[in-house]
Write a structure and sequence with these properties.
Layout: H1 13-48, H2 52-59, H3 65-72, H4 78-87, H5 93-98, H6 108-116, H7 118-165
């Protein structure tokens, strides 16, 4: 039986109340999420030592776009998040978009040295080999299953022909 978010309005008071309560919960989640997104802009401005107005200029937003959204807790367009990621490459895109992980990207020199470290490369190679082995096993299992299905199909086709011939 499918799960429905909204119970159809049948006119009963309980259905209307249930729907209203569900809508209220969903709105709270949306508002909470938007406040977290807007907080990212505030955090970056504070970390950069600039005002929201200067941040708006840097990302190409009209004056007041972000400050109004922050003060009123209203929605913003996704393009401002993209502009934030593009204009502030030192900040983690994952942190900007989801609020998880570190705020700042890892130091690129440190990152490069880690990527060329023989121990790290060996670990990556081992992981890739393990993934390849697992994929080969899965592929073999799928090939076996495919052969089995082909045999089953032939048996069923023969049985159908027998039944149709009677």
């Amino acid at each position: 039986m499918p799960v429905h978010l909204f119970v159809p309005f049948t006119g009963t008071k309980s259905n209307i109340v249930d729907n209203f309560q569900l809508i209220k919960k969903l709105l709270k989640i949306i508002i909470f999420y938007m406040r977290n997104i807007l907080q990212v802009f505030t955090d970056i401005a504070q970390n950069e030592g600039i005002t929201i107005t200067n941040l708006e200029k840097k990302i190409g937003a009209s004056k007041g776009v972000l400050s109004r959204a922050i003060s009123k807790g209203t929605d913003i367009q996704a393009k401002w998040l993209i502009a934030l990621v593009d204009n502030y490459p030192l900040y983690s895109a994952e942190w900007i978009l989801t609020g998880t992980g570190p705020m700042l990207q890892r130091d690129s020199a440190e990152s490069i040295s880690k990527e060329t470290d023989p121990v790290v490369l060996r670990e990556k190679l081992i992981n890739l080999q393990n993934q390849l082995d697992a994929l080969e096993k899965a592929n073999n299992a799928l090939e076996d299953a495919n052969e089995s299905l082909k045999e089953t199909k032939l048996i069923l086709q023969k049985r159908i022909a027998e039944l149709e011939g009677k």
